[in-house]
Amino acid sequence: MSNPNATIDPVAMQAVAVHQECTALRAAAYKELFDNHPASFYAFHQLRGKDDGPFLIDVFIYPLVVQGVNQNIFAAVTNGMSDQPMAHDTERPESPRRRELIQYLPACPQGRAQRLRDMAWLPLFDGFLLDSRDTIAWQLPPRDDTPWTHGFFLEPVWQPHQGPIRSPRSDEIKFICSGISPSPMPNCSSSACKAPTSF
């Protein structure tokens, strides 16, 4: 039975409303881009922590057909990073402030989806701009199902994924490809809570 005296956080309610509106439009754009519905997905409530703020990010997993490759390849993409713009960076004023992450994997168990979501969530929570050629070093240990921890970001390798995504808002949204490494990249920040370094 629900508590009649429970208060509803208006910020959280607004975040949910925005996320639902943007998801409907992004899902249609993703279907057009990947020519398919997601094979599976992880909803934001499966991936978020207790004190993560009003940043609701799902991970959708799309099957890809790659000519000459005889194994499953999936594109894991975030859905929700672009609900809100990232911080403005005065040193990179032309960089897109709305991004979604994409990662190419042979499989995407929840631990990998969690790390992808975490990399999308961090710039929103910590208030910095994440762009291509940036890196993030995590002090957190790797997930149980993967030794990978640190993140680096490049433009997507597949040409169709390099262009802008139809945006629910007026800002342009572009994918940024997330890679992961078992050790920090050269010149990488030593803390996950600092703005990323570029290489």
List keywords for this structure.
single chain; alpha+beta; 199 residues; 3 helices; 9-stranded mixed β-sheet; globular; 9 strands
Q: If you had to describe this structure to a student in words, what would you say it looks like?
A:
The structure is a single chain. This protein is α+β, with helices and mostly antiparallel strands and 199 residues long. It has helices at residues 10-34, 44-47, 110-126, and strands at residues 40-42, 58-64, 73-79, 98-105, 134-136, 150-154, 164-165, 173-181, 197-198. Strands 1, 2, 3, 4, 5, 6, 7, 8 and 9 form a 9-stranded mixed beta sheet that branches. The radius of gyration is 17 Å and the shape is globular. Mean pLDDT is 82; it is low at 182-199.
Classify the oligomer.
Answer: single chain
Largest sheet: 9 strands, mixed
Helix content: 10-25%
Taking Cα atoms only, what radius of gyration do you get, to the nearest Å?
17 Å
| Net shape | globular
The total of helices stands at 3
Uncertain residue ranges: 182-199
How is the topology of this model organized?
Blueprint: H1 10-34, E1 40-42, H2 44-47, E2 58-64, E3 73-79, E4 98-105, H3 110-126, E5 134-136, E6 150-154, E7 164-165, E8 173-181, E9 197-198
Quick gist of this model?
The chain is an alpha+beta fold. The chain is built from 3 helices and 9 strands. The longest helix is centred in the first third of the chain and has 25 residues, at 10-34.
